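Render Reverse transcriptase domain-containing protein in 3D.
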Amino acid sequence: MLTRRDFAKMGKPRLTESTQAITMYDDCKVIPHGWCTMTVTDNRNCKHTLNLLDMETKQHSLLSPKACVDLNLITVNDLVHMVADEPLENILAEYDSVFKGIGCLPGEYDLAIDESITPVQVRPRKIDLSTKEEVKTKLDTLTKQYITEHVESPTPRISHLQPVRKSNGTVRLCLDPQNLNQALKRNHYHMPDIDDVLPQLAEGKMFSLRDTKDGFLQVKLSDKSSHLTTFWTPYVRYKWKRMPFGISTAPEEFQRRLSECLEMTQRCISCGRRHTDIWKRSSRAR
C-alpha cells in the first residue's frame, strides 16, 4: 500500500480501477484510487513482482509481511524443532501434587470499592436448560474445591452467573458483575506486550510455553471481598472465594501476582494473562 506521494515518485504508473474498500488499523475504510503490478529490485539485486495499491491516506506507505520477507527487509527464523526430553506421563507422576486441583498464588486480594456507587441486587436470571445440569455439576465441583461457597446471610450486592461454553466443549462459570465493576477501583499494572518480551528472548535457543489452568481462580479473595461477589443460581446464592472471571480488575491483578512469582526466575517471562515462556540458551542449561 503506497501513499499518493510515494506513487508519484514512481513515475505515475497506469492504474487499474479498484472498488474494494480497505479496512485500516483504526477501523476506517478507504477505497484505493487503483492498483498496479510493478517489478522491484531488492538490496541483493533480486527482482520481485508486487501488487501496489494507490491510497489516499495521511499514514505512511505499508508493505505486507510477505513483501518484507521477499525483499529481505526482515528475517523470520522458523527453524523450530519440537523437543521432548521426557514423556509427559513421567513428569505428571513425579510432580503429582502440583497438577491436582487448582493452585493458589500467595496472599489475598482485597477489592477496592468506590463507596459512592450504590450497591445493586440484580433480579435472578434464568439459565438455559441445555446447560443447567452442567452448571450444577460445576458448582458442586468448585464448592468441594473451596472456590465457591453457599451464601445464607444478606449481602448488599448480588450479581448474575454467566456460563460460558469453552472451545473444548466444557462450561466455564463467570460472574456478570456490572454494578460491582462500576464500583471497583483499578489497581494499575503494566501488561507486557511483544516489545517487552522479544528482547529477553534474543539469546534463547530452546523455548517452552506454559498455560496457567484457570488462572484467575488461583487468586484468593479476602472474606470481605468474597461477599461482594455473591451471585444468583437456580438453586441457592453463592459467592466466590477466589477471583472470578468477569471482574474488571482481574487481568491486571493476576498478571501482577504471576509476575511477582516469576521475577526471581531469570529465564521465565510472563507473556500476559495466562502464558509463561521458559527459555534456555542451550539444551544443557538449567
